[in-house]
Amino acid sequence: MRAYPSQNPAGTLTIDTARGVTAARGFRASGTTAGFKDSGTPDLALVVNDGPQHAVAAVYTTNRISAAPVQWSRAVTADGRATAVVLNSGGANACTGAQGFQAAHRTAELVGEALGTGAGDVVVCSTGLIGVQLPMDVMEAGLAPAVEALADDAAAGVAAARAIMTTDSVPKLAAHEGGGWTVAGMAKGAGMLAPGLATMLVVLTTDAEVSSDALQWALQDAVKVTFNRTDSDGCMSTNDTVVLLASGASGVRPDEFEFGQAVTAVCHSLAQQLIHDAEGAAHDIEITTVNAVTESQAEDVSRSVARSNLFKTAIFGNDPNWGRVLSAVGTTDAAFDPDRIDVTINGVTVCRDGAIGDAREGVDLAADRRVTVLIDLKAGDADATVWTNDLTHDYVEENSAYST
Amino acid sequence: MRAYPSQNPAGTLTIDTARGVTAARGFRASGTTAGFKDSGTPDLALVVNDGPQHAVAAVYTTNRISAAPVQWSRAVTADGRATAVVLNSGGANACTGAQGFQAAHRTAELVGEALGTGAGDVVVCSTGLIGVQLPMDVMEAGLAPAVEALADDAAAGVAAARAIMTTDSVPKLAAHEGGGWTVAGMAKGAGMLAPGLATMLVVLTTDAEVSSDALQWALQDAVKVTFNRTDSDGCMSTNDTVVLLASGASGVRPDEFEFGQAVTAVCHSLAQQLIHDAEGAAHDIEITTVNAVTESQAEDVSRSVARSNLFKTAIFGNDPNWGRVLSAVGTTDAAFDPDRIDVTINGVTVCRDGAIGDAREGVDLAADRRVTVLIDLKAGDADATVWTNDLTHDYVEENSAYST
Q1: Residue B343 has what DSSP assignment?
Q2: Which residues, in sequence order, are CB contacts of B54 under 8 Å at separation 6+?
Q3: For residue A381, what is the domain's CATH number?
Q4: Does residue B300 share a domain with residue B187?
Q5: Angle, helix A97-115 to helix A68-77, in steps of 10 degrees
Q6: Is A14 among the annotated ligand-binding positions?
Q7: Which of residues 339-358 of A touch B (CB under 8 A)?
Q8: pLDDT by residue, tens only, chain B of 404 residues
Q9: Residue numbers in A near B235 (CB within 8 A)
Q10: How many angstroms separate the Cα of A314 from the Cα of each of A87, A177, A324, A353, B188?
Q11: Contacts of A328 in chain B (CB under 8 A)
Q12: How many domains does chain A have?
């Protein structure tokens, strides 16, 4: 049995967090102000794949109530080909009925006309309040300047990342350069960041030569151990979308394993940036379960703790309340002997063999924003990490005050 | 399909909320101060069944990490016979290892010796902080005065209910008199009330002549639609216990259906009192799902909404945010067509056929503490109600400040 896992599922690849989607060759981007937001900040982003390849992979929310743009985009990416992604903040276009789907469709048509491509190759993403129709006059007027602003430089990548922000305090960017090819991306949202519904939107780009099938496998593997294990408040959005576009512009066909690691490393970096920018949060919490029988059971245990409001409020109060960890563990179906579990918080094993361990006074939660919780089930050799935040007054404030 | 279900699963039986466990004949009770709590308030309760029958039924937490008193009491009630229940607040005796189990065992021995009965007929319940050993010197010294104080009058029932309070602001009592027999009870805890871990302790008494098998069936049926649908913060305690003692002192053997309805009505009243006394809460929320294919699916849908932090903070902010209701519904496996769901909040159908319904401005959430949410799946004819509270600043405050 291993005592400690590698928390970064991709190991230690170098990530540049100053560069976004345009770090990969063959891509242009823009971020402009169309007027969806009352605040007057940028709210329309475009990412265009200039090829020569136009492969795409995507992962969408598993929420059965999905927004119109998700329904549209699912159909677009089903054939593994896309040329552009258009994203707006200031309105989720979710639960908007037939009119909402028409709006997503029409948005894709307008982008397709402006770029000289088919509407069926345009992915659409929206974020904001549910149950409000998207103002299509704003979209129509805003798209021409957005297309006009398209550029392939670093500033354009940053501008696109800024235009998809809602309550994010900073844009989230990440890029990794491999052997002649690059994987890059931008993200917004997650949990407390996005009181509108915690919508997470991620656009990844690569100039590697990769088939759409290989692209989909790499993306699914990466999302599974990064975004899907970032569980800020247990709430699942109607709009979550992660899309990966490949231009092939590097002319290099990477090793599949190396490419997968790069995609995972970029996703991991973006997921960590999302957790770290959760405005309502005072602590970033990393919950790792080790020595489970299966990875799935390890994930269940970590996630159960990540979703316990009692545990999350205790961490906010700088209280290493391991009883609340154990009580969350006890609600899972994972294999374990209750009298053998150890819980270690910030290096102090406060619970040993299911009972009182080292003195809880030895745990310092006030010194650092980062908190690590290690749960040793002593049942097998599988592990999994889930990242979350504490539950704070600011979380309640942001999420109660949002739409009123 | 029915439009509205009966929210009280027991119909409209008359409940006296001023009388506790001594309302049923054949029972004595006491509530005294042993000294488990630093506050000096009562913290030791006894309920004694003087017969002639000594039937018992019990339902315990399904948390796999269960406290020592739960492990002890499971064994005690397995044979359907018990003569007394001893309960302490000021310490949960959970995650306390072999020493903790010895403490529960020794407590039962001491009570048995004082009452002239076997330790194997004494149920033990504890509530308070996890991971702290129960001070047995306090227990030993406290039991003699507790036995001394035993009485069969109404005041003794109230005193017992007071002695199990933690952060409860009032004792919870309920009694129903049927055709010559009575079902009565007391409760403490639930959700935000009990930051220690939301421990819920309930002791019910009846003077009806009922076999322990029939008692168990009636109790399980009642708990299923009352306490198990009271979901204040989604956290499950290591100590939850509901125990029903039957003395047979009325000499009346009731109709099984009528008896079951009475047990359900008393449990429903106690569960509502728990929700209403949740100190951190500003709203009591009743979430009813109608026209589901099965009752289990209706319960899943109601519970999913009850556990959404985003929905619960919205209600705190007096925001009828139906998008957060739908997004929680969408995470369940219940059968429904997303384009047919209606959501009605306080009588206003804000979502109709999965899209925008009547104006949300018509919903007044500030006027009353009680909020009703009705979700119509239009898929079958089953329904279920789950009761919860909103997520407030006071919840965060109480649960972060508790043990530090």
Answers
A1: E
A2: B81, B82, B83, B121, B245, B246, B247
A3: 3.10.20.340
A4: no
A5: 50
A6: no
A7: 339, 351, 353-356
A8: 333 334 566 667 899 999 999 999 999 999 999 999 999 999 999 999 999 999 999 999 888 888 999 999 999 999 999 999 999 999 999 989 999 999 999 999 999 999 999 999 999 999 988 888 999 999 999 999 999 999 999 999 999 999 999 888 899 999 999 889 999 999 998 554 333 345 789 999 999 999 999 999 999 999 988 888 887 666 667 888 999 999 999 999 999 999 999 999 999 999 889 888 876 889 999 999 999 999 999 999 999 999 888 899 899 999 998 988 998 899 899 999 999 999 999 999 999 999 999 999 999 999 889 999 999 999 999 999 998 888 888 878 877 765 43
A9: 308-310, 324, 327-328
A10: 37, 41, 8, 22, 22
A11: 235
A12: 2
CB-based contact B317 A400, cutoff 8 Å: yes
What CATH number does residue B115 fall under? 3.60.70.12
* Domain identity same for B47 and B150: yes
Evaluate whether B399 touches B311 at the Cβ level (below 8 Å).
no
Residues B305 and B175 in one domain: no
Q: Are residues B259 and B301 in the same domain?
A: no
Instruction: Specify the residue for token string 């329309």.
Output: A44
β pairing state of A382-389 and B27-32: unpaired
Q: Which of B332, B333, B400, B404 to mutate to test the interface with A (most CBs of A within 10 A)?
A: B400
Give the domain-ending residue among A232, A247, A276: A276
Tell me how crowded residue B8 is: count the other CB atoms within 10 A of its CB: 16
CA B327 to chain centre: 28
Is residue B84 within 8 Å of B49, Cβ to Cβ? yes
Strands A84-89 and A44-49: antiparallel
ipTM over 0.85: no
Cα–Cα distance measured from residue B48 to residue B205, given in angstroms and rounded to the nearest whole number: 10
Torsion of CA B339, B340, B344, B349, to 10 degrees: 80
Tokens 């039986």, located at residue: B13
> Which structure tokens are listed for A26?
């063959």
Contact B29, B45 (CB under 8 A): yes
Spatial contact of B178 and B257, defined as CB atoms under 8 Å apart? no
Q: Does residue B107 lie within any of the structural domains? A: yes
- Return the closest-CA partner of residue A391 out of A168, A192, A193, A237: A192
Identify whether the C-beta of residue A172 lies closer than 8 Å to the C-beta of residue A197.
no
